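Schema walkthrough. Field components (list of strings):
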Amino acid sequence: MPAETLYLYGLLVNVSAADWHMEGIDGNSVFALTEGALAALVHNHKLEENLHLPRGAAEVKRQVTLHNEVLCKAMGDFGTVIPLKFGTLIVGKGGRSASENLRGWMKENRELLEKTWGIVKGKREYGIRIYCQRKRLESESGKDDELDAIRSDIRRRGAGLAYLLGKKLEIRAAELLLAKINHYTDYFYGRLEGVTRHIVVNKSRLAINREEDLLLNVSVLVDGEEAGLVTECLGMCAEKGFSYSVAGPFPPYSFVEQGQLVK
Amino acid sequence: MKTDIGVAELLDRALQKGVILNADLVVTVAGVPLLAANLRLALASAETMLKYGVMQDLIVSKPLHEEGKNGENKDCIITKGAIAQHFC
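Field assembly_structure (string):
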């Protein structure tokens, strides 16, 4: 089992962070491990502390919150931070200590990290969820000549054919509803994309705390001016009768994933 | 009931996103990151947690009718029209 591990919170580029300290997960002292112009925010981690089964969701929530608090503090102090996924422990390996391994990784990825820093600098991530009322969309999409024709036909036909036409009606109504949903999803996405090209669709389709259906769940990365424009976009969204929620600001978690680093 | 959409949004990000280092630099047991192995809950997204009822004590549902009279969204960290003001 490795003797030394480092818990890694985030990375900084071209800032003076040598004297930066704060309290992190489980009261550990977070400090900046520097490598040239790069700095990694870490704490020395006692590995044996994690050789236990999880103590429940509340424990996970508490640790994730502390992970995020360190990143938010760094974001405030240095303009931004490149966040690491929660739970990253660097190990000593191959005759090299954890700090040597981490410095080596930073050195190898310097160019990519500098590029990423340039993208996220001075910007914040917000989570935006736009909701719709299914009944309203059904009502909108239900105004269709073909639907009216099928309904009219059903009234004139016998039970057997009316049943089949009923199925046809259901399929047509579902197609129209889907088209309506796609229309609004594309519309709102397009409006937000017009404000910032840094927009990512989130996987979660859960309508948290809502009885409405989730229409769009995105993360945007914006500066102060763009934040105002996003606010305007959401105001327009509300005017059209859609509700929304905004969460943040967050460190730019959604914009530093491997696939996002080079965009 | 207290609602906490911010926690769900944070978990969705911190548990699934952010920079991921090469596996050979992080602590692993049989190829699985050790912290993750011991904190299996942490691997699941907030959505999965909710699906299986794990997070019910942390994120509770609020009926729509409890929202503000003017359609205000009370359960988000930043409310309507206030993004710019909260930008720091």
